[in-house]
Design a protein that fits this description.
mainly alpha
Length: 465
């Protein structure tokens, strides 16, 4: 059993690393990635933070600060920039194993279970890591230079320490859970959804265990809650800044592209993210795993259900009450319970043949979804369009882009000596306009001011006066 789970875990890490790291320059830089790059290449950490707040409203720029140091060591080539996210994405595979193992570990104050090596739990955790490693939703954000892969890795580490603290206690576990909760929020504000879900779990545990008389389980739950509150207070100044920036960004239309989700969106979210063919298999295994696990690992299933659905439910409420915010990248960690339940379902099948077939089908369909996505172009040809614009730009003239925030990707693809020629807020001689599909008409107002089309590349037109 040990060799089997260890072999599966090694396969997960190797395959996951290959899928995350292979040909990182396959797609051209996106405008969103360029905003992260523009902040990270600032001369000082203080300037990185200041620019990060401007270019990525609602974030503290913790990821950009890490990327700033990464660039100092490896440069700002596209593969080098994205490799930091690929590294965190690969580390996350091991963290999924750790979190799944912590979910299934027995209480450490159980004298009969303490110290017992549970090969079944290790096998389930290794299968969960493999399903995570080959799934598109976890690969896609590991191949971008944005902060979501970093947020996912920090969040998973925080959840693992939270589970250890709730199960065993210990100052290091309490402190680690609290510090990493705050750290995750500084990477992206929506990471706050996870401590909120953990708070629901702690309330359930305390209510179940009771306070009079207080059991050891309820004592640990209260201590974890206190640790999280202390962490929140310690990080409060940064969180308030992030909340303020996010509110300002929303008021300025940062999320105007988001649409109000339909009521079935929570289920559709998992379907779209994992693949039309892979999702039914994963969902069937997950339902079976959750039902079977309810009897043999009740607490693990209960916590995973809260982790999976509570953050999504919170964003649904905000989407209907305030503004649409239910976006898959904000709830990336919520996909991990799906893989955990599916792994539990595989292990609960009655025969080795059935388990092997189910796992092979889930992995093959997931990889097929990845292959189908990768073989089609999803990027905008900013590099080609920028080169054409520069060829047609008169000496001393400037160029820009529409929407205005896309000027950073134009600046990236200009030669370093020419980057100052890409400007915002001026009357440039040439403008690059993001559009949906080559041949689509640019925005009418831009088309009137720049009636001459120099060239059209995938997703972008080059116009001049």
């Amino acid at each position: 059993m040990r060799r089997l789970w260890l072999a599966i875990l090694i396969l997960a890490v190797v395959a996951g690393a290959a899928l995350r790291c292979a040909d990182l320059s396959l797609n051209e830089m996106s405008a969103d990635e360029a905003a992260t790059w523009a902040a990270a290449v600032a001369p000082s950490v203080a300037q990185v933070i200041a620019l990060g707040e401007q270019l990525n409203p609602g974030k503290i720029a913790a990821h950009e600060v890490l990327l700033h140091g990464w660039i100092a060591m490896f440069g700002d080539g596209l593969e080098a920039l994205r490799s930091l996210s690929a590294l965190f994405g690969t580390i996350a595979i091991v963290l999924v194993f750790w979190v799944s193992r912590e979910l299934l570990a027995p209480p450490w104050d159980d004298a009969d279970a303490s110290g017992r090596e549970d090969g079944g739990a290790n096998l389930t955790a290794a299968i969960a890591a493999l399903l995570f490693a080959v799934n598109l939703i976890t690969i896609k954000y590991s191949r971008e230079l944005r902060m979501y892969s970093t947020m996912l890795a920090v969040t998973l580490a925080q959840i693992a320490l939270f589970l250890r603290a709730a199960r065993r206690g210990g100052f290091a576990n309490y402190a680690g859970a609290a510090v990493l909760a705050g750290a995750a929020v500084t990477v992206n504000f929506f990471a706050i959804l996870i401590p909120a879900a953990e708070g629901i779990w702690l309330l359930y545990v305390i209510t179940r265990a009771g306070l009079r008389p207080m059991t050891e389980e309820s004592r640990r739950a209260v201590r974890v809650a206190i640790a999280l509150v202390i962490g929140a207070v310690a990080f409060a100044p940064l969180i308030l800044i992030e909340l303020r920036n996010g509110s300002t960004g929303v008021s300025r239309g940062m999320l105007k592209w988001a649409e109000r989700p339909p009521l079935w969106e929570p289920v559709a979210l998992f379907n779209k993210a994992t693949g039309t063919f892979a999702f039914p298999v994963l969902a069937a295994l997950a339902v079976y795993g959750a039902v079977r696990g309810w009897r043999i690992a009740h607490d693990a299933v209960a916590f995973a259900l809260i982790w999976m659905w509570a953050p999504i439910a919170m964003l649904m409420i905000v989407s209907y009450a305030i503004t649409p915010v239910l976006v898959e990248r904000y709830v990336l960690s919520c996909f991990v319970p799906l893989f955990f339940f599916a792994a539990l379902g595989v292990c609960e099948l009655r025969s080795d043949r059935a388990r092997g077939f189910a796992l092979a089908a889930a992995v093959a369909l997931s990889i097929g979804h990845v292959y189908g996505f990768m073989r089609k172009p999803h990027d905008i040809q900013w590099r080609e369009a920028t080169a054409i614009a520069l060829e047609n730009l008169a000496p001393g003239a400037t160029l820009s882009a529409r929407p205005a925030y896309t000027v950073e990707v134009v600046r990236y693809y200009l030669p370093p000596a020419e980057r100052e020629r890409a400007q915002r807020g001026r009357a440039p001689a040439i403008v690059l306009v993001e559009q949906r599909g080559c041949g689509a008409a640019p925005h009418a107002a831009v088309n009137q001011e720049y009636p001459v089309t120099i060239a059209c590349r995938r997703g972008v037109a080059v116009l001049k006066r």
